[in-house]
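Homework help board

Subject: predicted structure for assignment chain

Our instructor gave us this sequence and asked us to write out the predicted structure in token form, then describe one feature. I got the tokens but I'm not sure how to describe them. Can anyone check?
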Amino acid sequence: MGVWDGMIYFNRSGIWVFTEKLIRRAHTEKRLRPGNRWAKRCLAAIGLFSLAAAGCRSPAEHRANADQVASEIITAKQEEALGKTEPFDIERPSDILRRRLIEEQGLPISGEASLGTDKLAPIPHWPEKDYPPAVTSADANIPVEPNRPLRISLLDALQIGARNSQDYQAQKERVFQSALALDLARNEFRTVFTMQADSSLTRNVEARETSLATGGTVGATRTLENGLDIGATLAMDLVKLLPGAFGRTLTADPSVSIPLLRGAGRHIVTEPLTQADRNVIYRMWEFERYKRSFAVTVARDYYDVLRQMDSVKNNENNYRSAIQSARWSRRQADAGRIPEIEVDQAVQRELSSRNSWISAQENLKDRLDAFKTSIGLPADALIELDPNDLVQLGQRATQYLETMRAAKTTAAETVPPADADVTLVPPTREGAGPYEIDEAIAVRLALENRLDLRVANGAVYDAQRQVVVAADDLKATLTAGANARLTANDNDGSLGFESHQYSGLLTLDLPIDPRSRTRERNNYRTSLINLEAATRNVQELEDQVKLAIRSELRTLLESRESLKIQAQSVVVAEKRVRSAELFLKAGRAQIRDLLEAQDARLSAQNSLTAAVVNYRTAELQFQRDLDVLEVNEQGLWREFSPEVTDNVKQ
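My token output:
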């Protein structure tokens, strides 16, 4: 006699394969006839496995369900945390600019992972054939031509960074994972249905008999927010439940339990859910602040490249002047008008200017490569920045130059005597930019808007709740419970509950020995320490915010004054070069005077561009530190309107 007996588990496709084989075998043995016990058992098995199939979902369906749940949570929490909603998705498109640049510009890569998950070679047992799905991004509208550099503006860079930056993507995934964690915490308070089925097939070879036993258990559990646990299970033999079968058994086991001391109360039971809910809010605030910091960083790096582009242009012009000066000195020396040593000085400056010109070019390449990686693009991609942004940057410097040239002409007519008293004039608010607001108002704006301060203050409240939870763990354990067992047996063709068994339970655990609560005692003391630490974190962050705001206002003032000073320096340097050229031709100056004047002009020009960039960057950083710079899901910003500060109380 041979026996095959065991528990069988099936996925959705396996259920139908097994059922088909079962029916085919019954037909072969001529047992699938009306009224035949074998037929009844086959039908019972089919019904059981069909029910199991309804509870089986594919990995793709589970992923889609998780995405939907997380998306709903994120949308709701965006409204709660930020007072607005915007699209949020963590699926990276297959046509992001990074990948298109690699493919269309033929850039080298180390492997398939460099192009994206969808380009990975499939491995055995991969759960989803079409994952990741093909997603089109806005980057597809950016034309990429082979072997030609892609020109991008500042607005382009902001949007490209939001879609291609690795760190930006990681921050979005962090928000998404917090939403999944909240869903998991909520699941602890949902009604959960379970089903388990087992089937054993026994074949007696000698007697040519086959027997099939099929049973199942259906259960439901739920924890209420007051701590009440409710559960019920129903066990049955599906084959014996068919009409005409005898010896049927049905067992029901309902039970309830509730903590009365330790672990009792809604605030204790729902603490994990409360923390998970607040964590999503925190991640929202952190991501919103990250977007603002990221946008300012991209702008700062972009302007830094523009500044270096201007430096290359200035060094190029200076190099040309050095070449012309060297040629002029050579002719003058050949004519016997200047000594040979001045020719050597001019040649040395020509060589030095060439070295500076080359260094400026290579420095530009380094900064451009660093900028490309900061927005998520390959360092070796052919990229160039829009020169129109450099023109706009230069217009501000030109305005200051024109103002300083006009002021220089007027000032020359009113120079006080050399022996007159010297009065130092401190910087004033004359010509102040729109963001140079009152310091007290700025600090109040920052304290009201800083999202990281909200997170830190929220952590204090979290720490307070943890103290309450830790104190609750010190209590005695008292749990009340009840359960019942109802059994229905049938030996005469009828089925009804005949056996009833009820029981009540009261469990009391008294911590008579204090050492039995050593872990809980230490946790409670630690929770108080953590509360103090969280409070200090708020105080420290608040001081840092005030320090940053005050420092940014000083930076704005210093940058504005530097703009004026550097513009004056350029005007003086230009005049110095013109004078040196005239005196040199008249034989009243040496070549060294001209060379020094040209070097001073180059330095002043570079410093003026740096001052313009520094002031613009300081404006953006000030808005970031106030947390008033709005950035949308595309990475584009909307700057703060300083007029609203008129409504802020002093």
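Reply (TA_rk): Your tokens look well-formed. For the description, you could write something like this. The two ends are 96 Å apart (CA to CA). That's the kind of observation they're looking for.
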